[in-house]
Amino acid sequence: AQTVTQSQPEMSVQEAETVTLSCTYDTSENNYYLFWYKQPPSRQMILVIRQEAYKQQNATENRFSVNFQKAAKSFSLKISDSQLGDTAMYFCAFIEDQGAQKLVFGQGTRLTINP
Amino acid sequence: GAVVSQHPSRVICKSGTSVKIECRSLDFQATTMFWYRQFPKQSLMLMATSNEGSKATYEQGVEKDKFLINHASLTLSTLTVTSAHPEDSSFYICSARASGVQETQYFGPGTRLLVL
Asked: For chain A, which ranges sit under pLDDT 70?
């Protein structure tokens, strides 16, 4: 079974700093997708970034970028120039390309951006 | 685009009553919708997968007679918590997957259920 592990339950940085959230996963599949979702205090799940496993190039979305290491099964999220609005729970998630296509979530990392 | 709504956002009910939660995809058709439950400070737990026009597929340990799911159209899925009890109090979140875009799920804002 696929598993997703986020080893950092909580992180805290100062505004404008860069922060990296870790995520590792385990799968025997070759084709799959990886996601980072953000859940602010409103509890709305927001898609931050998406990575396709067959693409070697790391995905970027403005201040958000990933470091995808397929061989190491690692998928970290880097937030540059962090803002107060980035304060949220961040969930790493995995979905296989075929089969049941259920999202498998990590345990989450609570990120706090301090002014 | 890819907006999913949920209604109600918050509901309080008495023990023994039933509560219906609606999940709608507003600007796309969703052949598949998912229902999750989230306990405080925890991750999302998948309850069931809802496919338009067919019976829902429930995860192990989720009572299908307790949590009734109907996906009658390409834009609407409903979750009914039957004979609710205080232990059913939780945050329920739905997500929808657009037709033809198999891998990305878009989430509703969630429904907070409190059973007294």
From this structure: 99-100
